[in-house]
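Appendix B. One record, verbatim.
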Amino acid sequence: MSAVLETQPVRFYRPDYHVRTPEMRSPEYVQMSTAAAITLGLVPGKMHRTGCTHCLNLLVTYPEGCRANCAYCGLARHREEARDYADRNFIRVDWPTARYDDVIARVKAGSDKGQFQRMCISMITHPDSNADTFVLLGKWMREMPQVPVSILSNPTTLDKHDLVRMQRMGADIFTVALDAVTPAIFERTRGKGVDSPHKYAHYWQAIEWAAAVFGREKFGAHLICGMGETEREILEVAQQIRDMGGHNHMFAFFPERGSLMEDWPAVERGQWRRVQLARFIIDYVGGHLRDMRFDDEGRVIGFGVPEQELAEIISSGKPFRTAGCPGRDDDVSACNRPYGDSSPTDILSFPFALARRDVARVRRQLAGEDVPAGL
């Protein structure tokens, strides 16, 4: 049975990868997505309709966990009742722990297969996260400089000089997980409303720093669709980031098990498909929000491109694939995050090229039909 398909707790099957060791902390240890662990051969499993992930998603880890308390996150501080921080799920799946040196050795051993086109270091809110991120980045650039590195940052603990140092050390792309796209939603889900330290203004400051330090096409932001914002509101933010020279990595809201928002409904399918399509037009087709039309509820009712061109864009399936940092292929995000925001029975972000049947289901969702787009 596929570990990603079922998203059941995954444990390393070798004694030296036992996850309940309290001494497992960065930079000696890192957590990784289940998809990355399967691709590396550290856990058994298969991924539905995709052979591997092309981005090695790593996460700094500490027994005491993340000190933030984001309402939608499986790593939030309020989950301290969990027996071990390393056992918490994050974006639907488990994140097993391994020695960083062993991870690098396995990547080296499989480098002839070209599995990984990118590595990403994800930070958390912890006193050691900054320093350990530099250690992980430095070691990677010494050992595997041919595989570019993205930084998924924690702006709360960073200053501009940290970004300068990351860029000088060889980080290729810098991203900011803004997630909540309005100040009110951010405050309610990531700030004082949940006794968490993050501030909307500082996150935007980090995006501006990234634009200045890393430059055009080398920075981006994570945006979550379905946390109470209108389609117009999330696309306004997407347009701002694109105007600055960045790209938007969209996520569909999926209620994380054990999070404060576990009872919040998953994003409505039509809303998600419209936002995906409009975001793609903004980021990659040269379209602009000013040419799009919205109804009184902020829903997209016109995408600002000719009908024939719009039909061709939809038929390509590209707007509905996972949005993330690029790999070697122009039309494929290296960071395909298999089933990070939905199950294979109803795929929201496709981690593979869409077949005609997939596009047909997406078209029906765009038309307002409540049909699954998976399996």
